[in-house]
Every structure is written in structure tokens, then in C-alpha cells.
């Protein structure tokens, strides 16, 4: 039988009821001459219904691509015709400015929506869509009110009028009814009344709330108007889709750059997507407007949104494709457009095979499933095998994760996941797992893994906030389009799953072709609480969780998995930090160490604990010195105010920049080490407080210096506890040499201080700058801890109190001497003066002479505030650490600089 008959067998949704016109004559007859057997037609129809290729075989790949090509051409022709209707047959002014108090609106499903107006930078300003018998129009600002009042952009009225006519009648020049019945939800009916009056029609407002599911008045309306004020509800999206499918005209106006939960649902049901935070507020003029250079032909090309996909499908089917992917990525980009649409659909709770408007996407996902088993990562060359490259790229991109079935590359997933992982046993009965939540919003490891191709079922038993699930938490994963050609296509293009919401009741299913650790994504949760999940179909792997008690059996099981290397990843979870690293990197970083020593002593005990002690976080116990000072000063040094501000994630696999890269997650081309300075440096980037940052006239200890102060505390503590000194210097001799040179100039007073400021803080050498904080720490050990020779512990105590005080001044500031801020009206104090005030308070000495010696300027307000503490003034002095032993704090000697400048000890 002919292909046209086959399509009709796949239900009306496959062509007619989904995405637009139900007129089959709109299909290009030249694409319908493929012959397909009734058996194949039935098999494909069943596969679409089940969302699984279980009944299909390799020969069905070509049939699926043929059908997808037919659908894509049909939608493209339909969208071309619609834009030609709205813009054709009239001399229209195409200029338009949405203004910065607006949001972008873009097509979310290419099968439904197409841009009506794109800004000069390509941002969506207005979109139209079709589904079933209905049509819709949406703008990213309240353009309807502008047109009704004739207040703004009146040159745009002819286009708006034609678009309005098309939504209501199906024809841009079609006659409107003399009386137009309408209803509004979250939108001002007065604006609609004014607009209809301008159009010369009689408005008839219906009084009803058609946003709720039990209304019947929507059937009487000619047009339904939504605005950003529409009430959110679980059934809202389904209601809007029902209205559209039934043939209703729907118009949505978004009034500002802000978000709208209900409005976002309405737009999603219309096949559209609302922009993110800030909307167009920060966009350039070209990002929110259409200039006079825009031509009609350029506008009409917006209807060719699916042309690149059509090209990609045709190229994927070629056996002798000639394509230079280094110069022409249009087909790869078209594949990515569908990938992003699939992500948007699933991340908002939609299911690809339950979404009738995603008929094209369903075919592409099934094709991807059929193609995937034969992929061999590392053996595909984009230069000599462009068609195979595109097919692999598409198979890696066209993904549906929230279903029960998928396929896997039998040879494994390159350096992402070994082939052995496919054989890992998964739980047949449900486990109850308690997942600790460190903060209100974030991502955290669950402690179970998805095995490639095997579905995981997750049910929420207890928890609050918005909960979602995803496999893997990665920031970067390589790019086969730009990776070195010599490396081949090394790994799946998008190995992590999309994030999609967990159902409020019942099971949510996740299946991934690539596998990976499972992560809970949460928002609006209660920090410090936990979420209880029931999980089946998951595997255990090398996961350590030190946010709660672990049995020896749990640790031994994780250690055994680490050594077996049969799963691609190892994860660890601590208070304030989490790690995801490849199993090979984990074993390299561990070396010959006992796994417990590596995970517990090095990563937790050194990397995270050192940072958290220096930052004064409440998850670390206070030393005797710190506790005694806090009690005597009346400071609140424990509790929620000092919680670690967030969980810092580290990923060992691929770096987003350089060898190691900061951010969250921080990533690198290495396993996570608890002893080197690299990861301490990156952790410092993401936890550094203002009291480490000294900026004078745009110079000083800025980014890459301030965070390294925390890395240096790590190295100092590491030597104190283990005797390991592997560098990362704070250059005390260089700092001392600046003092010598400054004194040799014969200057005094402010001139001498300014000269030192220029020498030390105006230069580019960070190591002597960072030594200043440690010299203050040594003063703390001398005066507060009463130590003749500084100890590591007392030096760390200084940083603990400095950072605790930083938070207290910011969050619990009060006038008076509690924090040494008596002369300040509020806590708007610059950083180096804050360091001076707090340091004087916790050291127990007025360190004004020390600050002058280091070239740091102090205002009279700062000086008077410390004077109010009635502290003795510390004399000029310097603790000279032994050469090249700058992490070994007990190796030096005190030098008195009050009267002379002795030579630095050799």
C-alpha cells in the first residue's frame, strides 16, 4: 500500500490532529510515493504507541527516517503558508520594538509553533502556533494594549491586525464576526474591549474562569485571552491544549521581563517557550527590536525553520555524503534544535510519547534507538565519515529519558561508561533511601546508579519543595564537533539525562542509554532536612556518603566497587561538598592508598575540612581558642548563620577551561586530590569571602589571589597534620624585602605608606600579598593564643574568627564595640578596613602600625572605631619563616621592626 495509507493507519494524530491543519492535501504528494507493507506500518504504529523499538529491526531505520522527512516537510510547508498569509498581500511596516520591559517567546515544539517576529539578534518577540483545529498568538509584551490604546508601535497595527484575524478565522484577511465573544484569564478585559472597538467589532465579554477544568463557558467564546496573571494549576496546560485542539483561538500577552508560572504553562501548551530571568531587560536594542533594514523575504524565511532538519535527515540517509563539518554545521545545529525541544518538553514534565504534538519527535527518537546499538565510540571520523558522524550525533541527541525502554551502544559508551556496566545487577525490589538536603536549592547524589538501558523507578515517600531527578551532574562533556579529529567520536554527545520532575504520587521512571549516578535536583526545600525515596531498578556502585552515618559494610561495598572498575563513575558526598569522578581518575588519584584513607582522610579531612575551618563554617567543631573568644566577645559563632553557603561539586573528567576550572560544578582533567593545591584553589574560588579580597585603586589581592589564601591555609594545615609540604608558597621573604626597600627611601608618614601600597598592592606578584593575611594570623597566635612560636592550629583559628566575624558583621551587624564597628552607621565598610577592625578585635591589639607597614590605608572612622576598643597598639614586627618552609609555621622567628630592619634569616 502507499505511504499515504500507511500514515492514516498511524492514527489521525500522526498528521492531522497534531500541530496544524487537518487538510491532508497540504502534504507534498512527491513525498508520499514510498511503498510500505501493512505489517511494517502496524509495527511502527505499535512502537510509537509503546515508545519502544522492541518490535522493530534495523530495516525500519530507513522507514522511520522517510516518515520523519514527510512530516517535517509538511510542517514546514504549513508554516511557510501561514507566514505568507499574514505578511503577504499588503505593504507592511516591519519595524517593531518590544522594549526592555518584555520577555522573549520562542517556539518550544517545531511541529506547532513558528516565530512571527524575530529581533535583529534572533530573539523571539512574537510566536504563532497551530494544533488540531485551533490557532494561537503570543507576544512577549502587552502589545494588545498598545494596539488598543494606540499608545506604542502603532506602525505595527496592520501586522497585528492580520495576525489577529488569522488566529480567529484562519485567514489573515478573513472577515471577523460582527460580534466577538471573548473571555480572559489573567488579562485585562478592558484592553480587549478597546481593541475590538478599534477593529469595528462589537465586544461581548463572558464572565467565567475558563482556566479551571470544570468550566463550560469556554465553548461559547470566539477568542480566549491569557495573560501572565493566569492562576497556576495542575490542569492548566491540559485545559489550554484541549481548547486549542477543539478549534479555539487563543491569544497570550506577557506584560514584562518577569516570570509567570501559569503563563509559562499556557505557552508550553501552545508549543512555545518563555525566556529566562531578566527577559529582554538586559538585551541590546537589536535583541528586542526589528530595524528598518528587515525585508519581507527575510521574515518569510522564518517559516523555513524545519528546512535544516529536512536537510539533516536527507544527509543522514546518504551512503556517499560529502560534507565538511568544520565549515558547515547547519545539519548538526538542526539536530540540536530537536534535542533542545526534547529537553524542554521533558524538563517540564512532558513525556515525548504521550505528547500528540511531538509526532515528529517520536519518530526521530525511535530512529535514534534503532541506530544506537551499533555505535562504536572512538571509531567514527567526522572528516572521512560525515554521514555516520551525523547519524551518531543524532542518536546521541534525540533522547527520551522518562520512559521504560531505550537501547544502548553494545560496545560501551567510550570513556564515559565501560561496556561492563551494562551487566551490573539492579534491584528487583524497592529500597527506601534517605537523601540528605544541604540547602534550599541544589543537586545532590542519591547514592544509586542507572545502568545503561535499564529503567529506574523512583517514588517520593517524604520531602518538600520541587523535586526532580537526573543522571549525572556535569557542566561539560566534550563536543564531537570540535574535539580533535584524531580522537574520533570519543563518547556520547550528551551523556547526562535531562532533569525532569518527580511525580507527587506514584513512580517516576528514568531510563538512559548511557547510565550514570542518579542525582536529586531540588528547589524550595528545607535546608538540613532529607528526602525519602523508594527506588527499584537501580544499581549500587562506588558511593561514599559522609552526610550521615555509614556502616562498615556500606564503606566496604563502595571500596570494592572502586577497585572493580565495572561502573564508570565514583561519587562521594560530604557536608558542603560532593564529588563525581570517572572510576579511572578515582583510582589514579587514590594510587596505592587505602581507599578509606583517600576518601576520608585526604578528600574530606584535608580538602573540605581545611576550607571549612578557614571559612568558619559550623559543620566543623570550634577549637578551644575560638570557642573561648566567641564566649568572651558575645559572638554567635555556631548555628545556621555559619552554615556552609552551598554544596561545592567537583567533577573529574573533562574541564570547561584549562586543566582545572572553577564554578559549580568545578571540573578538571584529573581525579580529585585532597593533598595538592589545585582543587583547594578551585574550592577557594567558590567559597572565598570578602575579607580575603583587598582592592586598592583597581589593584591588589584580587581574584586568583584571594581564593589562594584559602588554598594556602589548606597547605599549612596539611603540613601541620601530616608533615607533607608540597609547595604553594606564600612569599614572606619577598614581602619583607618590600618593607626593606620602602624604609630605604627615607620617607615617613603618609608618603611612606603610599610608597609601600604602590610596591606591594600595585604590583602583580600575589605570593607576598597573600603573606599579609598569614602575618596577621601569626600575630593572633602571639597575642591571643600566647604562643612564643606560632602553631598551625592557632594560625587556623585566626582565619576561623576572621571569616565568622565577616558573616556576623554582614548579617547581624550592630553599632558599638561588639565587632569593633562603633564609629560606623552601618556595615558598608571597605574590605581592608574590615580586616583591620576585625583583626584588631580578635588579636587583642590595635594593628594600625602593622597595616601602615604593609601600605594599607585606613580612614579616621576605622582608626577611631578600633581606638574605642582601648587596645594596646602593636609594634611593627614580622614573623620570618625559614626559607622555602612557608607552610611550616613553627620554623621561623620574630623580628622587631620598630626601630630597625634586621636581615631576613637565611
Automatic annotation (TrEMBL):
Residues 1-19 form the signal peptide. PROSITE patterns: PEPTIDASE_M60, PROKAR_LIPOPROTEIN. The keyword Membrane does not apply. Pfam families: IMPa_helical, IMPa_N_2. Keywords: Signal. InterPro entries: IMPa_helical, IMPa_N_2, Pep_M60_3, Peptidase_M60_dom. Residues 441-765 form the Peptidase M60 domain. It comes from the Bacteria. NCBIfam families: ImpA_fam_HExGH (NF038322). This is Peptidase M60 domain-containing protein. It comes from Iodobacter ciconiae.
